[in-house]
Amino acid sequence: MYRIKIDRSRCIGCLTCVTACVVSHETESTDARNRVVIDSETRPAPIFCRHCERPECVYTCMTGAMKKNPETGYVEYDKEQCASCYMCIMSCPYGILKYDSIRNVEIMKCNMCVHRTEDGSANPMCVEKCPMQAITLEEVRE
Amino acid sequence: MMKYVVLGSSAAGVNGVRELRKLDPASEIVLISQDKEIYSRCILHQYLGGERTLERLCFAEKDFEQVYGITWMKGRSCAGVRPEEKAVVLENGDIVSYDKLLIATGSHTFVPPVKNLKEAKNVVGFRNIEDMEVLKDAAKNAKNIIVMGAGLVGLDCASGFLELGVKVTLVEMAGWLLSKQLDKRAAESYQDAFAGRGVKQYYGVGIAEVVLDEDAQITEAVLTDGTRLPCDFVVVTAGVRSNVEFLEGTGIELSRFGLVYDETGKTSDENIYGAGDVSGTSPIWPVAVKEGIVAASNMAGVPRKMTDFFASKSTMNFLGIPSMSLGDVNLEGEDIEVEVRKTKDSYKKILHKNGKIVGAVLQGDLAYGGILQQLIARKIDVRKVKKPIFDIDYSDFFHMKENFEYYFEEE
């Protein structure tokens, strides 16, 4: 599967990736599905969904809205099936998830920008726009 | 060829089947369940309220049997187990043999020992799809529905009825609703919201007795403080008990809570495993899912242990108010420090002791709150983080594996 590799040493905290995420998804609330935060030593840390091998958000989802695609390895979210119970927000060990800030209904979940390609492969706009190549798309073994 | 039998088709059973099929593609798998459909009990209130169809209660693949190549005996129940013969006995005497058995039979509504309640006819739990059909019917005629217990399930019930325009009455022994999950302040947001929608609420009192007419129909409820409430239907949401009756006398070890199994899911019989609510210890969804996966993995010969034992956690979204609860949010003591952050729309409280967070309640703003569960469950000393406790995020714990997954360093 593919995962977004993060090179913290290259990240300058410019938030271009966050803007790219908002643009790519055209979410009504303009919330992003990624974020960059600053640690106690003021170093930026890009926090992006890992599409975990053992995804806590999937284990905790009581509607089946959050699913791991066995073919692509991506953790997919179905907002129509979601009951907005927020258990996934609590379960993500890395604090990546939140709900949209207008309706509090939709979980802001990375989809690897598969909606940008014809064949459903990953094409994350955050990676495309990063001016520092701090985030890159890499093939990994699970 | 191995033959696996799985009892129960909810969170633990379904995920057990999935894991068995993944690890042992050639095996025979038989799923036996009382449920005739796979449905999520956590969203039944949306079915009651008409917001969700039965089809959309399903949390698994629509064609589950075909996808996983199993035999599903639905609408069947288990009357006994014969470990020495490696067989289960069904309600009609049918025998189903197994090489490995997974018991994920869940739990049932606990009916508290209230005078006349067991004899009453117009009383139901809030657990099964059959309960919802009874309640949909009751909603048409009943004028005074009392919900016994204002915990997560009781409030689900009250919310579902509100969608139908029915205002129930909540009776709760504790001093406020969701007393296990919330502090008084956070609970009041919900109490006010429910009151605003016409839901009457009684706290700090229980139901001492229900009064029956000659047809065993409840007509009145008497509270422990003597208050008499008109009542023509009672919904019991005061806890659950594990479904282990069929295991009595089998020699399989039971505790006073339910089925006993170790961190690999194995019971006292080496061919029998357990997962989910049937243990009677942590009746929450994510625990059931993980135990189902862990037990199935060990059944298929791939060793795996349950590692997540932090179960005092929940989120809720009643009447559009989001909350998250972790650990103990009502701890008191000289060495417990309590920090509160309030804004116009949100309330957050974090309790910590010697640098370690022991409890948290978030309301109105849950964004990125997942980190808190890890800080509590892993007992991480957060004093090294030079930020307000409410602003701690993963940046100070950032670690990446070779496959670019994140992880927490063991302290």
Can you walk me through this structure?
The complex is a heterodimer of chains A (142) and B (411). Chain A is α+β, with helices and mostly antiparallel strands. Chain A has helices at 16-25, 56-60, 87-91, 125-129, and strands at residues 2-6, 35-38, 44-47, 66-68, 75-77, 135-139. In chain A, the strands form 3 sheets. A two-stranded antiparallel sheet of chain A has the order 1-6. A two-stranded antiparallel sheet of chain A has the order 2-3. The model of chain A has no long low-confidence stretch (mean pLDDT 97). With 411 residues, chain B is of the alpha/beta class. Helices cover 20% and strands 26% of the residues of chain B. Chain B has 8 helices and 23 strands. In chain B, the strands form 6 sheets. A 5-stranded parallel sheet of chain B has the order 3-2-1-7-18, covered by helices on one side. The mean pLDDT of chain B is 97. The interface between A and B is large, with 46 and 49 residues.
